Structures are given as C-alpha cells and as structure tokens.
TrEMBL record:
This is Purple acid phosphatase. The lineage of its organism: Eukaryota, Viridiplantae, Streptophyta, Embryophyta, Tracheophyta. Belongs to the metallophosphoesterase superfamily. Purple acid phosphatase family. The keyword Protein biosynthesis does not apply. InterPro entries: Acid_PPase, Calcineurin-like_PHP, Metallo-depent_PP-like, Metallophosphoesterase_PAP. It comes from Populus trichocarpa. One of its GO terms (cellular component) is extracellular region. Residues 1-28 form the signal peptide. Residues 44-253 form the Calcineurin-like phosphoesterase domain.
Length: 332
C-alpha cells in the first residue's frame, strides 16, 4: 500500500508538472485586446513614434496637431511605434519621465483613448519591466504596452511585435549602452516562440486587413536604414500570410515604400519629436513613394474594402496620402 501511495503521489506530481507546462504554453500565446468599430463599421487611429522627450524637439507641437486631427477623424485609439522615453527608457514605475513625456503632453480630448505601444531599443535601455507594468495604468489609464500582442478591431487586426531582440548589434556591440534583457534570454528561444506565435495568429486571422506593427524598419532609406535581421526572419512570414502593412518607427521620419515581391506597404511614422537627420540612402530608393525627413505623424481610416492613410507634418499640414482597396475576404 505504501508503495502504491508513493507511486500514485509520484504520478500526481508528474501529471501536475505536465499540466503546468501546458498552461504556461497556452499563456505564451499573444495576448489579445478588443476594439469595436464605429456604428458605420469603420475604424480610425493615429500612429506616432520616437516621441518621448518631455515635450522638447517639437513633441508638444506634434501632440497638439495630433489632437486636432484626432478630433476631425473621431479616432478610436492611438498606436505608438516605440522609443517612447528618451534617452534610456523608464527607471521605475514611479519615474516622473512617464508623466512629463506622456500624460502631460498628449492632453487633447481626442487623445484620451487607449494608446497601444511596442518597445523600442531606447526603451530597452531602461527598466523594461517598469514600462510593461500594468501599474502604469494607475498613473494614466490610456497606457497599454506589451512586448508583443494583438489588437482585434473587427475589420482589421493589428499584430504588435517586439523587434528589438532581433537586432544583433544590441547584443554583440552594445557600446556603452546597457540593455534590460530580462524576459528575453535565451534569445533564440524567445525569437523562435515569437515567430511561431505570430505565424499562428496570422494564419488564424479572418480580418479583412492585417497590419503588423514593430519599432524597427524593414524597408527604409532613412538614417538607420533597413534591418537585415527582420528582412531575413520576419519579412518572409509577413509575405506568406498576406499582411497588407508593416508600420514602424526607429527612423525619425515619415515614409511609404512599396514591395516588389508582395502587397506589403512599408509605413514609417517615427517623427514624434527629434528628427531631421539629413542622411538618405540614395542607393536603395526602389519602391519609395514618399519620404519626409522631419517631424509629424500618420492617420489611418479603415473600412471593409478601403483604407485611407495620411501623413502630416508638425504643423498639421497634409504631406501625402494613400488609398488602398481590396475585396472582402470570403466567408469560410
């Protein structure tokens, strides 16, 4: 009897261990948020990146124009493409930089919606757990920042991806910078799981529009240029799963670049504050439809079969617009 009890107890421990592994695997899937469309079935939002400078470098001016355009479009939420707090992210959940660079800058009524954000490389130089902490929502309820997640807005799904860990130089040649890799190491395991989760989510998506949001560029002629690691590891997955748009920051400019191998539109919105780097990759301008080396932001208005994209400068002037059309996805 004692032997049987010991055997049963051991089996119970093994079963419970397997159960916990299963639960952890299930929880590893990308977290989802839901956003209803307007009564007419449309959705609209603004995109801004590389902004967190306590209002300096025209951040406050860009924020003012975002508020004005946000009211005109009756936006449903805001997307941030990362590098939210310069120069080195947040130090803690009590860091006053959060309010000085976010809460006290984006004060317009139209911007009092959820802000969905990815992390940038500058954010990784701080206390990443602080910026990811849900406790920040006690300071400002708008703030939603995760490593990677999904926003389902019925006609469109946005897949927010943590791109910083893909970039080799942050690990191999960090110079004098310190990066907070807690939650990322071992790196290859983290990236492999992320790509698997993204692929599964893209394949399961029934939305008519699929948009992937990351901090780093895939295509760009700006200061940082293209990110080879993303071109190699992420881009094939996006092309294989009929993603219409990849939206990023990192380069402090506004861009639209088309693809020669797929329907993907590469859209950069990284002009939230400091910009005007002044260097352009003239050798890689194939597919470039629009480039503005200055401050500003982007808006998207989506319907089932139509998307209107507009880029604005720091004065709210329309610099460029793009219209995309497609048929409804067939009901399976």
């Amino acid at each position: 009897m004692a032997s049987f009890s010991h055997h049963f107890s051991s089996m119970h421990v093994v079963w419970m261990a397997c159960f916990h592994v299963y639960v952890l695997c299930a929880l590893a899937e990308l977290q989802r948020f839901e956003q209803p469309t307007k009564e007419d079935g449309s959705i609209s939002f603004l995109v801004v990146g590389d902004w967190g400078r306590k209002g300096n470098y025209n951040q406050s001016n860009v924020a003012f124009q975002m508020g004005r355009i946000g009211e005109e479009l009756s936006i449903d939420f805001v997307v941030s493409t990362g590098d939210n707090f310069y120069e080195d992210g947040l130090r803690s959940i009590n860091d006053p930089v959060f309010e000085k660079s976010f809460s006290k800058i984006y004060t317009a009524k139209s911007l009092q919606k959820q802000w969905y954000s990815v992390l940038g490389n500058h954010d990784y130089r701080g206390n990443v757990k602080a910026q990811l902490s849900p406790n920040l929502r006690n300071v400002d309820s708008r703030w939603i920042c995760l490593r990677s997640f999904i926003l389902n807005a019925e006609i469109v799904e946005l897949f927010f991806i943590d791109t910083t860990p893909f970039v080799d130089k942050y690990f191999l040649k960090p110079k004098h910078h310190h990066y907070d890799w807690r939650g990322v190491m071992p790196r290859q395991h983290y990236l492999s799981n992320l790509l698997k989760d993204l692929e599964s989510a893209l394949q399961d998506s029934t939305a008519n529009w699929k948009i992937v949001v990351g901090h780093h560029t895939i295509r760009s002629i700006g200061h940082h240029g293209e990110t080879n690691e993303l071109k190699k590891q992420l881009l094939p997955l996006l092309e294989a799963n009929n993603v219409e748009m990849y939206i990023n920051g990192h380069d402090h400019c506004l861009e639209h670049i088309t693809s020669s191998t797929s329907q993907i539109q590469f859209l950069t919105s990284g002009g939230g504050s400091k910009a005007w780097k002044g260097d352009i990759d003239q050798l890689n301008i194939g597919g470039v439809k629009f480039y503005y080396d200055g401050q500003g932001f982007m808006s998207l208005e989506l319907r089932q079969t139509h998307v209107k994209i507009v880029f604005y400068d720091v004065f709210g002037k329309v610099l460029y617009n793009l219209n995309m059309f497609k048929q409804l996805n067939p009901v399976i």
